[in-house]
């Protein structure tokens, strides 16, 4: 809620919710230097940093990255 307030939006509407989530994810990517680590932290995985340090990811990250790859292929058509 604090982040949404700083952005001047409400998390109760679609636009505000997406803007707040992407702002948070952007911050996590900057802080962790890795999209996969950021996604695990964003997803609330308590062992995210440990997994990242071991070069592992979670099922959640694998699903998200698979969707991204499919979207990229679709976009190139």
Structural class: mainly alpha
End-to-end span in angstroms? 39 Å
What is the radius of gyration? 14 Å
List the secondary-structure elements in sequence, H or E: HHHHH
Please write out the topology.
Blueprint: H1 2-7, H2 14-32, H3 35-42, H4 48-53, H5 59-76
Helix pairs in contact: 2-3
Question: What does this entry show, briefly?
Answer:
The protein has 5 helices and no strands. The chain is mostly helical. It is globular, with a radius of gyration of 14 Å.
Tell me what the structure shows.
- By secondary structure, this protein is mainly alpha-helical.
- Helix content is 74%, strand content 0%.
- The protein is built from five helices and no strands.
- The chain has helices at 2-7, 14-32, 35-42, 48-53, 59-76.
- α2 (14-32) crosses α3 (35-42).
- The longest helix is centred in the N-terminal third of the chain and has 19 residues, at 14-32.
- The chain starts with a helix and ends with a helix.
- The model has no long low-confidence stretch (mean pLDDT 93).
């Amino acid at each position: 809620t604090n982040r949404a307030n700083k952005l001047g939006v409400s998390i109760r509407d679609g636009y505000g919710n997406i803007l707040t989530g992407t702002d948070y994810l952007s911050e996590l990517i900057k802080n962790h230097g890795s999209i996969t680590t950021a996604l695990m932290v964003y997803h609330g995985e308590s062992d995210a940093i440990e997994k990242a340090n071991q070069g592992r990811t979670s099922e959640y990250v694998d699903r998200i990255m698979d969707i991204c790859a499919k979207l990229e292929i679709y976009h190139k058509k």
